[in-house]
Structure formats: C-alpha cells, structure tokens
Amino acid sequence: MFVVVVGCGRVGAQVARGLVEDGHDVNVIDQNAEALQRLGSDFPGEFVQGVALETTVLEAAGIERADAFVAATNGDNTNLVIAQIARDRYLVDCVIVRVLDPARAKFYEDKGLVTVCPTRTAIDRMSQALRSFAGDGGDA
Amino acid sequence: MYAVIVGGGKVGANVGRALLRMGHEVSIVEARPQRFATLESEFEHMARYGDGTEIFVLEAAGMARADVCIAVTGDDEDNIIIGQVARDHFGVENVVARVNDPRNQEHFDLLGVAPTVCATESILSLIEHEVPQHSLVHLFSLRRENLEIIEIQVVEGSRAEGATVADLPMPPGTLVISVLRNRVGRVAAPDTVLGAGDQVVAIAEPGQDSALMELFASE
Description:
Oligomer: heterodimer
CATH topology of chain A: Rossmann fold
CATH class of chain A: Alpha Beta
Strand content of chain A: 15-25%
Order of helices and strands of chain B: EHEHEHEHEHEHEEEEEH
CATH superfamily of the largest domain in chain B: NAD(P)-binding Rossmann-like Domain
Distance between the termini of chain A: 53 Å
Strand content of chain B: 25-35%
Number of strands of chain B: 11
Low-confidence stretches of chain A: none
Number of strands of chain A: 6
Mean pLDDT of chain A: 94
Radius of gyration of chain B: 22 Å
Largest interface: A-B, 18 and 19 residues
CATH architecture of the largest domain in chain B: 3-Layer(aba) Sandwich
Largest sheet of chain B: 6 strands, parallel
Largest sheet of chain A: 6 strands, parallel
CATH class of the largest domain in chain B: Alpha Beta
Distance between the termini of chain B: 52 Å
CATH superfamily of chain A: NAD(P)-binding Rossmann-like Domain
Order of helices and strands of chain A: EHEEHEHEHEH
Shape of chain B: elongated
Number of domains of chain B: 2
Structural class of chain A: alpha/beta
Shape of chain A: globular
Number of helices of chain A: 5
CATH topology of the largest domain in chain B: Rossmann fold
Number of domains of chain A: 1
C-alpha cells in the first residue's frame, strides 16, 4: 500500500521507517527540513517540506492516490483538521490521527476518526502497573 | 444572549465590547498568560484563562448554555476544532469562525464550520471595489445560504450595454439588485438602461461568474 505520513518527529519517522521495512511505499511531510534526518539517508520515499494544511503540499506528497494517511505532527488540532481533510476531501480509506488530549481524542473517535492517544495509553498503563502492585500486596 | 468568545486578541476583545454594549452576556477565553492579564483587568470575571480547544476549558466557560460560539483565535486549525466541538459536543446552535488565511476557507467549508469571516478576503474585496479597473468582484458571500453578492462592470460593446434591466438575459439563479453610476447606487428598476462603466450589483447562486462575465464584460 501507499501511505502519506505527516509529521516527521519521533513517532512519524519511526512509523514511516517501519512501513518501509514491511515493504510499503511511504511519503513524508514535515514543515521542518531538518526532520528529514530522522528518516535516515537510505529512506526510499519522498520527503515534502511544507505545511500540511496546504492542499498543494498534501497533493505533492501524493495524497490523491494514498491508501492510508497518518497525522502525527505535534499539534492536536492540526492533526485533527488534516485527518478530516484526508478522509472527507481526498477520501483516503484509512486515516489514523495522533491526539495527545484524551478528551479531544474521545470526541473525534466518536465522530468516526481512528485516534491514537499516547496520554490515554500512559494513564492506562501506569494505573494498571500500580493496581497490579497493590494487588500483589504492595499496599500492605 | 450568551456568547462565548474564544481568542481574546484585538478581534475577540472588540467583539466582546460590542456585545456587552448591546446588553449581551459574554465570556472571553484566552490562552496567552500576558494577554489574559490585560483582558482580566478590563473584563474581570468575564475573561477566562485556558486553551479554548480543550473541552474542559470550554465547559468551565459555560459553552453548554451558550447561544453563540465565536472562534476568533489567530490559528485556523484551532478555530475549526473550536467550531466543531462547540456545535457537536456542546450543541451550540450558532458558530461564527474567523478565517486567518483565506487559503484555509475551503477547509472550514469542508468541515462544516460556518459562517466564517475573513479579514484578508474583505480587504481584498474592498480594494477590488475601489480600484476602477475591475470586472467581477464578490462583495459578500452567504456560504450557508449558497448565495453571493457580486459586482460587475458593464464593458463598452458588451451585450449588457444599452440594454434595460428587464431585457437582460440574466443567467439562471441571478438577479440584478442595483446599479452604481458615478458612485451613486440605485435600486434597479425594469426600465433602467445600462451604460458602459456602470457597476451592476447582482445576487447570485455560486458558479455563474463566467456567464455573468459573458454578458457584461465581453465585447
């Protein structure tokens, strides 16, 4: 499949590299040219420098033929807006969006977006680890 | 009426002042600490500190009972999200959003955040209106109602020149409402005769620009 990843930080870059290792085609968008370094010199896909809210940038990255779209910039609202643009304007089948704020993640999940919320994951994992510690008699 | 204004810059603060003068109830949400301090000294308890794209901040500002949400931050992504959350999470019936970059207008339209106001777009329309050499200007758009007000100049040798308003073969979905001649506007009457250089103001459903140009502006 062909995937467009927006946001080439720790998360976006690793997702892009992992997809390439699995044999998929991946193009990456980031507004910062230096973010390209995170992909490594052997990255086979295209890197487009620009603001993903601009349709010319999304189209330069090939969104019109994308099977999947990942919104992983460091801005929740940017991610939520570009994810909806990918879904509603470019009709991308699979749209995944990173949202740090659990409340907004839940709201947009209910509106049909596939959201990934690292904060929610951290809350759940930490609570789970503490509960299992307490369950093992740690609170005695 | 209760209005929650998100974004307390010049636009938000002035909208707040105007609504208060009209006797309405207002809250202004501002995320920048320094700007909030300035707002608080003027608006007291009506100024609220916080990121207005966070649901709990909007909840504390009373968005659930707001009659209107006014999203006027300097960030278009934020204004879109605020508009969607206000409407779909809090059930606010009226949302007005500011478009900072006119290129983002299509995103507001796509994602159902309307009506919108764009200062840059308004300034450009005014400039086009003031500059004598222009052919067709969109003076005002009622996006939700799917209507726009258009101004178009009658070019010498066009089909419109010398025709009366009644005889003009106007494209479907358009209507001449007034004629501006020598800077004086008059409501169009059926027997008004159009001359070269007249500016015709019409109300139109979108998509008739080229048909109107054909009629008024091609020789």
